[in-house]
Amino acid sequence: MVQFDDILQYLGAFGRYQVRTYLLVCLLAIAPALHMFSQVFLVAETDYWCYVSGVEDYEQQYCGDGVSDDVCEDTWKNFTIPYEVEDGICGTTYEYSQCYRYNTSGVGYYPGIDPNLNGYETMECNEGYQYDRSVYKSTAFTEFDLVCDQYYLGALSSTIYMVGILFGALFFGALSDWIGRLKSLMVSVVILVVFGTAVAFSPNYITFCIFRFGVGFSANGMFLIAFVLATEFVGPSRRTVAGISIEFFFCFGYMLMSVYAYFIREWWKLQLVITVPNVIFLCYYFVVPESPRWLIVNNKIDEAEKIIRKCAKVNKVVVPEELLTELREEKKKEKSLKEDEEPVKTYGALELFRLPNMRAKSLNLFYNWFTNSFVYYGLSLNTSNLGSNDFLSAFVSAAVEIPAYAMSIFILDSRLGRRWSLCLTMVIGGIACISTVFVPACDSSLEWVGVTLSMIGKFAISASFAIVYIYTAELYPTSIRNVGMGLCSMSARIGGMLAPQMILIGSIWEPLPLIVFGATSVVAGLLAILLPETYNKKLPETLEEGENFGKKVKKNKALEVTEKYTEKPDLYNSIDVQVDMDNQDGVVNNGFTDIPLEKIST
């Protein structure tokens, strides 16, 4: 039977036409990164305190020439804001309260008066808040007063964005299979532009979260479709590189976000800058071709043939006419016989848990996907706490992903293989995060050590995220691969939803989030050792092969195992037992030609 991979043998695995299409499609990955990590700056926290009416009169009267702004501010704060004593790891500190003020009604403002000596009562902020605007002129944090008892709402908006990503993956995955990749892409771009623009004009926090949900919903769909389009034009031998290389464009968008934020310090303007230019991607409908794979599968042979001929012309190659004719004839027969064929047996999620070896591997993979997303987004969204400069920290956090993805391309096919590559990257990243607790927090001269360790953790977890996707696709048999990958993606989304909330526990003890991220990563890395190696192994096709893959069975127990499984002929139609498949030599299959091309987004 003729498949698109057969045609690619003549077109070339990655010819000029595919390279041009690939680069155009990869540009789509920039926008999702911009919106994903805009949360760091859109809801950036600043110092704040109670607003007290009459302060402006005081400043006008007593803060004239010769009095610095800092001295003036400290003077009137001393009169209106009480001190709070905090016992931290660096000793006892005295800070102006952020949520309480003195009740100074009916009292005049005179410099030098200490309310503590006059017994003034304290009260909650009843006239609003003032914010330190030395770094950010405005953020959603200051716009919607996400302070004091509403402090948690900032992290909640990040979680809601992640929920949007989850639903976007489900919706656009199905939509792109139904109406095609290109039309689905146009839908995602329109939704992104509409909801992204609406975010900038949100009148309150609730609408802000609703619109951010829409942005996450569409941005993830945009990346999902971009990945599918980018890889479906590429031959099996180049698909691993193509699948990981699109992440470099995602990294560029991440870095670009910090540059935009540095020059644009008002959140709503920043939101418009990262949203409105996406309108240009609507032109892709006339520039980027539909996926020939999708067209062939959906029996749209005429459209597929036009794209194939155009690709051949640009690549300066010839596709045999008999091959296209054979494809057309096969599709006609397939259509006429479709009603007479017995339905292909499909497997549900329960099959992953009914068989012991598949169950163990699946639970292991679910935890690894959860951890990768949990730690990756936790470290990415926590960049403002890593150093004194939010913009530089975010830029460096994005930049370390570039060598991480480059390294993952090489170590995947090295002697380490998939299993040890995943194990080592996760363990090294986890140890780096945990090691930050040993850096003296009170010595500012060693701050760079803590930042460096955090970036090592980010480097390692970025590499492991790329590795676990390819590794998982190879571990699941063809018959149930989509189901397994979908459940792994769900696990990852749960980790992404919890990551912003985990950052809040830093208010209990600042190093705690990094310790949790590190410990979770180390455990996941050690569990990865229990998974079978797939590099240079014959990969499983059927559910039976998937159950036996990696299972070590002693020869003298082969008969016992055979008798056990022949009781289920619907699942095990062969009495042959694969002995010690983890050490079995097989056909080299690193192109994973039969894995699903849907990108479970990072």
Tell me what you see in this structure.
This protein has helices at residues 4-11, 16-26, 30-37, 39-42, 55-62, 69-80, 115-118, 140-143, 153-179, 181-200, 205-232, 239-263, 267-275, 284-287, 292-297, 301-315, 321-337, 350-354, 356-381, 390-399, 401-412, 417-435, 447-475, 481-503, 512-528, 543-548, 558-565; strands at 48-50, 83-88, 91-96, 100-102, 122-124, 129-131. α22 (417-435) packs antiparallel against α25 (512-528). The strands form three sheets. Strands 1-6 form a two-stranded antiparallel ribbon. The longest helix is centred in the C-terminal third of the chain and has 29 residues, at 447-475. The radius of gyration is 29 Å and the shape is elongated. With 602 residues, it is mainly α. The chain has 27 helices and six strands. A hairpin with a 2-residue loop joins β2 and β3. The chain is 61% helix and 4% strand. The model is unreliable at 555-563 and 565-602 (pLDDT under 50).
